What we know:
Layout: H1 9-23, H2 33-67, H3 83-129, H4 132-137, H5 140-182, H6 185-232, H7 234-239, H8 243-296, H9 301-342, E1 364-374, E2 377-387, E3 392-396, H10 403-410, E4 418-423, E5 426-427, H11 433-439, E6 440-443, H12 454-459, H13 467-476, H14 480-485, H15 503-517, E7 521-525, H16 533-546, E8 551-555, E9 567-572, E10 575-580, H17 582-588, H18 591-605
Parallel strand pairs: 3-8, 3-9, 6-7, 7-8
Antiparallel strand pairs: 1-2, 1-4, 4-5, 9-10
Amino acid sequence: MTDLPDFDAAAERRGNLRTIRRVAPYLWPDGQDWAKRRVVAAIAALILAKLVTVATPFAYGAAVDALVPEDGAEPAVWLGLGAIGLTVVYGLARLMSVGFQQLRDGVFARVAQRALRRLARETFEHIHALSLRYHVARRTGGLSRVIERGVKGVEFLLRFMLFSIIPLIVELSLVAIVFAVKFDWRYLVAVVVTIAIYVWFTFKVTEWRVKIRKKMVAEDTDANQKAIDSLLNYETVKYFGAEAREADRYDRAMAGYEEAAVKTSISLAMLNAGQAAIITTGLVVVMVMAAAGVQSGALTVGDFVIVNAFMVQITMPLNFLGTVYREIRQALVDMGEMFDLLEQPAEVVDKPGAPALRIDGAAIRFDHVDFGYEPARPILRNFDLAVGPGQRVAIVGPTGAGKSTIGRLLFRFYDVTGGALRIDGQDVRDVTQTSLHDAIGVVPQDTVLFNDTIRYNIGYGRTGATQAEIEAAARGARIHDFIAALPDGYDSMVGERGLKLSGGEKQRVGIARTLLKDPPILLLDEATSALDSHTEAEIQDSLRSAGQGRTVITIAHRLSTVVDSDRIVVLEAGRIAEQGSHAALIARGGRYAAMWARQQAEDQAA
């Protein structure tokens, strides 16, 4: 048991206590009286079940004494019932015990599932609230696995905190009292020592198994991530004939999981064998004591049966304790990762009491803005730009100049590190993110669609949009005729990430979606750079129509797409190198003119 790395046990305990504190309120949710009533009813059913369970062996023992009376004595009578009646009572008691347990589970089911739903939603909302910096670095497959295992762990812990640990403590306490009162202290000592050794062994081995489990979970997450990453890049894998390479990569990840899973199975076998040896030894010791009592005349045969019934009865929950403890520890590992995610702070947050953004013309001002993704790597330096209401301003420049960063700051994916960014005089840091996002429509370089219908993807632009409004937006993006010609029309599925549509068709759907949103500010981020020249010209017509009556910022690499802009800003190394209209910049003969000449030469050569 020494081949695994050590971990900080104190930190582990603190993490487990944190997790339990986070889960506990879901058992007694504030403001949900119906849930509290169900919890109380479930606990009442639990207590009744345990009381009946502890009383059951007495009916069994009395029935045996009634069937096997001592020499010359009358058959024992309990509650005025003979052997047959006591046997019926015994059967009814067992039935009642099971019935109360099932009632308990049925009553609590709604509470557990509602808690699960609340936590899943909380986690989902929190992930969307995290900054772009987090999502750029995250691994989608690993993240989905963390959430899946965490939510399942919460469901398990909610149920077993209430219905395994508490019932086990109640039952063992009642049995200990019965042994001390009905028999004598030696029976109590034997039972307590057996339980103590069993619990110590179970906890000790399980702690070791948790280390193995953590390794197995990490390997599982890694393998799952590699599988999803490979499937998302299916076309790239095909382009490079890398199917065998990807299979080997996945197999190597699964090999690590296999090794950890084998260790988990072996350690489980060791745990089960040890538990069986301890509990069987305790059972034999107590039964030998009871058999000696019967031979000496201190106990009846019925008493022997009662002792046996109680020992078998506590063996079941003790075996269950091993399973529950293992599962709880494993659930705590899984849930710890999810709660770490929930405690990941959002980088961009609304100020307390922040008002909504008020649009009055949609003028934009970058006021001496500084920004860098890392402190040692500044991107924008003293960037100062004013965009008037309804103006069309293009931002061009070489790769790495900071063009896309401007769009991310405008949408407040990040906050500026120096200066200010204002819309109609309001600092975007002082207004709610929801109102800011409502005011800006974005058409990115690569429009990503949901794996749903065209209707759903266009309608995503505005909640509750009617079919007529969706079709009007599609006409504005000049894609309605194409959609209408499809066999399923607006109900046509677009496939994963929209792969059933061409690049131009996806871009038009994206434009339609933005038109339906009807924002006062439009951000075109390399919206046509991935398209061929013919498709680009058609999309440009759609974008010009979309920009009517709006303030438009176009981020572009291909200069032919921005010649009709009111102003063109040339960005270089995070600073404005020059700005003006297309004609004025060409006449100046500076950086823009050189870029224009170079692109024109490339187009002619092509």
